[in-house]
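Lay summary. Proteins are chains of building blocks that fold into shapes, and those shapes determine what they do. In this project we predict the shape from the chain. Here is one chain we studied, written as its sequence of building blocks.
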Amino acid sequence: MDLTVLIVRGIIILVLFVITLVIAAYSTYGERKVAAFLQDRLGPNRAGPWGLMQPLADAGKMFFKEDFIPSQASKWLFILGPCLAMLTALMSSAVIPFGDSIRFAWNNINYDVTLQGTEINIGVLYIFGVVSLGVYGVMVGGWASNNKFSLLGAIRAASQNISYEIALGLSIIAILMMTGSLSLRAIVNEQASFFEWNVFTQPLGFVIFLTCAFAECNRTPFDLPECETELVGGYHTEYSSMKLGFYLFAEYINMFVSSAFISTLYFGGFHYPFMNEVGAALETSLGAVTGHNLATAIQFVIFFGKIFFFIFFFMWVRWTLPRFRYDQLMNLGWKMFIPLAILNVIVTGAGLLFNIKYASWLIAIVMIVLAATSMSRAPKREIVPQQS
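And here is the predicted shape, written in a compact code that computers can read:
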């Protein structure tokens, strides 16, 4: 690789790394504000204007808390657990395309560098591999704590992630069959037109993937590995200071990466309606280099708009739905999502064979009809007037 391209690529990775950390930090602030709005209260408003310095105050609190390691814990594994969770969370965004490319000239040579950490033709497999490693951070931390609540939380996290990763992987196979590539940039480029976004061609796959993403991030209603009412704090019961901060921070980074991955796979990535026309107009008026770079900046902003929407959706669900019971969680994963994901793959394959792009809607329509029929036949309760 040319040295100039290598330096520019390094700058892009550094910027994306900083943006990831800033978004994860301010997601904690956003989550408190959303929770406060839904519960009709103010939320953080003391640290700085509108409470904007609250994430820094939280970070300071974490840094200055006592760093406690239980006497019976396995010391090195106890330290390794949160580091592994944080490392895998940060690695997973490396292959996500955040925009088209950046053009520039240096020493009379024109360069065109993609706005992406690295472009590999197995981007989907890379993310799945890294996400699968993330559960080891939880398992190692839970086991090394030498605490029964931590161990139970770690076992729950492992079984939950294994159960939902199967359905998560199967839901993407339909997209891979339609695209014919494991490259995330190729998947994004296949969704150039608005009505070709995969959310329209794969509605069932989107619902399965979105639900499984909640389970993979351990977010409510799938936060059983750390539920306070049953396991105190789950796998991080014994953690304090920045080790606890790493676990909490990794959860918000995973939420950001999941939102970016959902936007990439199902909502056209950095594409938006009339993108080509806007790009052509900018290049005509501002020149090939400036116009192209400005068009890429607009794509970058649009893509982050989609990401912020899904981050808000993660928060909205957390403060709206109650937690599942563990048997309900397993039944939903093994008895509903995995069979539906396999059926979606079969129907999509048949649709491709007969050149029907929207074949997946057949399952969605059948499910809606069955649900409506079931609801109409359900016995209705009679309203008994309250007697004074």
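What the prediction tells us: The chain is about 65% helix and 5% strand.
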